[in-house]
Amino acid sequence: MRHIMPLAMLGLLAACSGGDKKEPTQRDQIGQVWKYETAGAGQKVAYIGSANSVQTMTAADTFSVLMVQPMSNGEKTVTVKLVGAPFQCDLSDCAVDATTDDGKAHRWKGRMTEAKDGIEIMPSQNAYEAIAKARSLKVDLAVGPKDQRFPFEFNVAGLDLKKGA
Q: What 8-state DSSP symbol labels residue 82?
């Protein structure tokens, strides 16, 4: 235990003495335009960060990430994640409400991700089809106590799953 305290103090000092170098935040790294990567077994994944963020009790810059991943059968899964605050979802009815730029409201049901940081929406919910046709999308997520909700906005135009790494 004695050896842990000096290490913890060194870590604290290093964290507090940020100097003049400003590292990009996680939100900056993800960005607000589609990015494409190759996941395991050559599977591609597209992701985009929300154009807006909100201050929560756990982070000053809570934002959302939208991920689209093709499956081997040609269908696509969509995952909505919350970064900076715990993702909240009624486990008996896990769903998110979204609105596309044409004004159409959607309710997409799914299951909480393994990391419990978002919801994985199955292809049968047609989330990918709505996203692919839209220029923008708003997803309402619970970000605070008593299910306080916030609409995260995504500029989803230009999604091209043939692009990529």
A: E
| pTM of this structure | 0.82
Q: Give the residue among 159, 161, 163, 139 at the shortest CA–CA distance from 81.
A: 139
51 phi and psi, to 5 degrees?
-75, -15
Calpha distance 148→15 (Å, rounded): 31
What is the CB neighbour count within 10 angstroms for residue 84? 18
d(CA 30, CA 8): 29
Cα–Cα–Cα angle for 48, 86, 125, rounded to 5 degrees: 55
What spatial distance separates the first Cα and last Cα of the chain, rounded to whole Å?
46
Tabulate helix, strand, coil % of the chain (nearest 5).
20, 35, 45
> pLDDT digits over 32-70, tens only?
999 999 877 777 899 999 999 999 988 889 999 999 999
